[in-house]
Write a structure and sequence with these properties.
250 residues; binds 2-phosphoglycolic acid; globular; alpha/beta
Amino acid sequence: MTQYTTNVVETYEELSDLAADMVQTVVSHHPRGAITVPTGQTPVGMYAELVRRVRAGAIDMSHTQIFCLDDYLGKSRDDAASLTRWLWDEFLEPAGIPGSNVHMIPATAVDPAVAAVRYETEIAQAGGLDLAVVGLGPNGHVAFNEPGSAPDSRTRVVDLTEESMEQSADYWEGDELIPSQAITMGLGTILEARKIVLIVSGASKADIVRRSLNDEPSLDVPGSWLRNAGNRLHVILDRDAAAALETRGS
Ligand code: PGA
């Protein structure tokens, strides 16, 4: 299989700039294209940079179709502890992406299984994903594809691991109850994107980066399946996240 590309940069700022470059390239080639982007700490710098570029007139995202990657089951955009809400405030609104171009993952559907199938159809009707930017959880999850997720999994309801719930609790201060279930795009859905950018930062992720990129792909490490995308995968790591890799990309 064709090898993916890895960029190891010195700092989080460089990682954020490079990730923003990749989004900008796709958006400028496909102004009406469909992309999915992650929540969490890692993409914060990328979003700040993209918003800066939008405000400077360097990039126009007003026609981009955004598909949300995941959210807690039962949480709507109006909930303070909703990933969609977070993305809206942090990125979509400041980047000038109109609500009509945002496809929210159906976290509050009466029948989430049926709605998940419909979400997949929506992605297909948009022409498929031109770009999927994803992060890597401490347990190797990609979106909320937790360990055990199959590489051909589709959008679906999942049970969250204790580890992911603890990670979530760190994001949402106060007494917000972290749901034990989520709805997530599947690994198979993400793997069909025409370009996949994995961004990982910090020493705490060094071991899971190594397991994702150096070990045999396995159900224990969802991130390891991203390599199935071959040359459609672009990995951006800062030096700390890359510290345990056996071979480093250029
Ligand atoms: P983080 O989360 O960016 O907050 O580390 C990554 C993830 O869980 O996908």
